[in-house]
Automatic annotation (TrEMBL):
Pfam families: Bac_globin. The keyword Cell membrane does not apply. It comes from the Bacteria. This is Group III truncated hemoglobin. Coiled coil: none annotated. Keywords: Heme, Iron, Metal-binding, Transport.
Amino acid sequence: MKDIQTPEEIYTVVDEFYKKLLADEKISYIFTDVVKIKLEEHLPILVTFWSQAILGTGGYVNNLTQIHLDVNAKSYLSKELFEIWLAHFEAAIDENFEGFNCERMKNQAHNLSTIMQIKIAQQDK
Ligand code: HEM
């Protein structure tokens, strides 16, 4: 298997990732009921975010932590939900690609997950 090297390949990963999230009722309600995401708008934003993070392209300007604090204010994002999220994310990468960028992408997701959970704990005090 090859490494992730282009925005098109990042699209493949996030597309497969969202299929897994939406098929898992333990977490899908966040994306269908709490925040009604429109996949055709959401996936390109994810591609921009991960292309900037992994491939060094630009263009992502949103406040990622604040976006998740806003989701959490509507419906609690528990440690279990973060673990489910990360497991589907890792599976979507590992089933399609392998290499250095894959490891960087998984590491960044872990780090951001930790940061988000710390901010959520502070917000909930
Ligand atoms: C419990 C775990 C998580 C849940 C349930 C979750 C849920 C969501 C939801 C509902 C949105 C759409 C928000 C909106 O459009 O108003 C979103 C956006 C996003 N999430 Fe998460 N998220 C989780 C963890 C993470 C983690 C760990 C990352 C790490 C990179 C991440 C990356 C993103 C990105 C890049 C967006 C797009 C933000 C934008 O529109 O600019 N999420 N998430």
